[in-house]
Amino acid sequence: MAIFTDHFLGERHDIYFPEDGDRCHPYNDKYWSEVEIAPIDRIKEIQLARLKNIVGFAYEKSLFYRNLWKAHDFHPDDIRILDDVQKLPIVTKEDIQRDQLAHPLFGTLATTPATNQPKFWRTSGTTAKPRLFSSSWEDVENDAWQVMRCLYAQGIRPGWRGFFAFGFLPFQAFWIIFNSAEFMGCQVVPKGTLPTRPWLLLMRDLAPYGDNFMCCGPTFAFRQLEVLEEMGIDPQELRIKKICLAGEPAYGIPSTHNYLKEKWGAEIHDIPGSTETSGCLYFSCEALEKQDPPSDHVVADRFLVELLDQETLKPAKGDTGITCVTALGRFGFPIIRYLLKDLMTIKENYSCPCGRTLPVAVGGIKTRFEDMIIVKGVNLYPSAIEQVVRTIPGLGTEFRIKKTKTGDVEILVESCQECSGNEKEDLHKIVQRNLHDAFFITFRINLLSPGTLTKEEGKTKRIITED
What we know:
Layout: H1 6-9, H2 40-61, H3 63-71, H4 93-102, E1 119-122, E2 132-135, H5 137-153, E3 161-164, H6 175-184, E4 187-190, H7 196-206, E5 212-216, H8 218-231, E6 240-245, H9 254-264, E7 267-270, E8 282-283, E9 296-298, E10 303-308, E11 320-327, E12 338-347, E13 360-361, E14 367-368, E15 373-375, E16 378-380, H10 382-389, E17 395-403, E18 409-415, H11 421-439, E19 444-448, E20 463-465
Parallel strand pairs: 3-4, 3-5, 5-6, 6-7, 17-20, 18-19
Antiparallel strand pairs: 1-2, 8-9, 9-13, 10-11, 11-12, 12-13, 12-14, 15-16, 17-18
Helix pairs in contact: 2-3, 5-6
């Protein structure tokens, strides 16, 4: 059974396998779809069939891909095995940006006019000029089905209440998760533009009536804790059982994960994706949430995730690299060999206690490769700094990495309360020492008063450049 009727949806282009099952109802009380426990060789068969299908479809329907692939002497018939995906040229955000500038509004990548596609998206613009994307009804159904599987793996069930603490901006963020929870049979409560204080009071009022989960960005999970403290409310009065995070790599950072878990009294889960690829690429299950470090499954039957060497863009040696992603079931706006650049470690044969055979991303998304900075010959990522500063008593939860005009790096942190001169000096020394012990670098530290650094509902820009 499909979510949408064919009369409503129109022509379907995906390949539907028996293991997909009934998209509207779970396979059993543990798995939403049988494909989650299929042998890895079977998952690869599904990947190859869907890869051939989407490449053939894009060649026929998308002028962008047809022109690109002809220029590289590639034809869909060249795909015979999974490794043949490497014959396809890599697509970058700059490629899509140039195409959209040359052919407004959506460029030549879309397979049908935008008026035939019900969903409009825009990237958040954190690393480049925002790009525009759209989705067909079949894409919407595929996304919803993927995400229902993810939520079910995290222990969320039909009838639960989901609090969606984000502003519903035009980038995907939690939109798809919101829709999926609704299709799954959950009650959904959107925050939208409601200020934080009345939002938290609404959550508290509804908390006693049912099982609750919350979806938000990591930074806003911290901000809500801060406001709850100001209001004199124990976070656990909100009775949140699960918190689903996305937008930043906080889930896989043990110090951040453990802090949020303790303060909220909830399991902390991961459900990351991207506007470009649509849907959720990875998800935590109840078993991986408890691992050290917390880790994710890869939605391998719906996405082909390659790990590439960050310098050569050739296949990485080993199981760590930056990601290049092919969405195997996105047809309105196909995304094929898109360089997403998330730094990850993915193990194919990982025996997860949950029984799922899908590959595992150990530690989840470590960082976006573009966020790397080089300090005195050492490659540093914001997530590594975060792991250190969030283990230091006396510090607040926010930090920034400031690149100065002279090329130095300054770490901006907050004290959790106002300090006397001696207390501030002692805390400053501890921060500097702990960072030096971790990275063998003596950083400049700027210890700020509580509340100096803003906490956003969405993604937080951790690296700032001095004007």
